[in-house]
Amino acid sequence: MGGARPDTKAPLNIAPMPNPVFSSLPTSIFQHMTVLALKHDAINLGQGFPDQDGPLSLREVAARQLLDGPNQYPPSKGLLVLRHAVAAHGAKFYGLDYDPEDEVLITSGGTEAITGALMAMAGVGDEVVMIEPTYDSYRPMAEAAGAVVKAIQLGPPHWRLTEGHPDQLAAQPGGPRAQPRRTGRAGQGGDRHQHRGDLRRGL
C-alpha cells in the first residue's frame, strides 16, 4: 500500500490513432452539394434534401408521441407494431414475405442499416462486390469490417451490367471467389435469399 501515488492530474501523452479507413476519407459529396445549394439558394437534388418540413398532421402525431410516450429504449429489433407495419408494407407494394419477428429490423436510417448488414455479412478477408457509382458510405463500412471491396464500374449511356463485368472483377487483385461463404437467411441454409454466388452466372 506504500509508495507514491500517481499524479492523476498529469497530462496523458497518448498520440491520436485515428481509424485509417475513415481518416483518409475526403469530405462527403453530399456535404459539398448542401453547401453549394445553400450558397446559391438552389434546390438540393444531391441528397434528397426536403424543402419543406412535412405535413402538419404527421408532425402533430410525432409531437404528441413525445408528450404521451413511451420514451424509453425500444427492443433491439424495434417495436413489434412497427416491424409488423414494415412487413405489411413490403408485402403490399413489393410482394415480399417477411416474418416481422425474425426477419425485420428497425434502424435509425439507411446508412445504419447498410453498416449493420455489411458488418454482419462481411468478415476479414471476405470480398464484397460493389456496383459503382454507389453511395459513398458502402466502401468504407465494408473496409472497416476487414472486407476487400471489388468494384464494378458502370458507364454511360445505359449504366447497366454486362457480360464483361466479371472479367473486370477477375483483373483486380485476388479475383472473385466462385463459391459463397454464406447463403440463405442469416444463420440458416437454403437459397431463398442468395447473398453471394457465381457472379458470371448471375449476370
The N- to C-terminal Cα distance equals 71 Å
Strand order of the largest sheet: 1-2
Q: Regions with pLDDT < 50 over 5+ consecutive residues? A: 175-203
Main beta-sheet annotation: 2 strands, parallel
Query: Helix- and strand-based class?
Result: mainly alpha
- Helix segment tally: 8
The ordered H/E elements are HHHHHEHEHH
3D shape: extended
Overall mean pLDDT stands at 78
**What is the alpha-carbon Rg in Å?**
23 Å
Determine the strand fraction and express it as a percent band: 5-15%
Give the beta-strand count.
2
Write the layout of secondary structure elements.
Layout: H1 20-23, H2 29-40, H3 56-68, H4 80-94, H5 110-121, E1 127-132, H6 138-144, E2 148-153, H7 165-170, H8 199-202
Parallel strand pairs: 1-2
Helix pairs in contact: 5-6
Please name the defining characteristics of this protein.
mainly alpha, extended, 203 residues, disordered C terminus, 2 strands
Could you characterize the architecture of this molecule?
With 203 residues, this protein is mostly helical. Among the domains are: 59-106, no CATH class; 123-203, no CATH class. The chain is 36% helix and 6% strand. It has 8 helices and 2 strands; from the N terminus they run αααααβαβαα. It has helices at 20-23, 29-40, 56-68, 80-94, 110-121, 138-144, 165-170, 199-202; strands at residues 127-132, 148-153. It has a two-stranded parallel ribbon. Helix 6 (138-144) links the parallel strand 1 (127-132) and strand 2. The model is unreliable at 175-203 (pLDDT under 50).
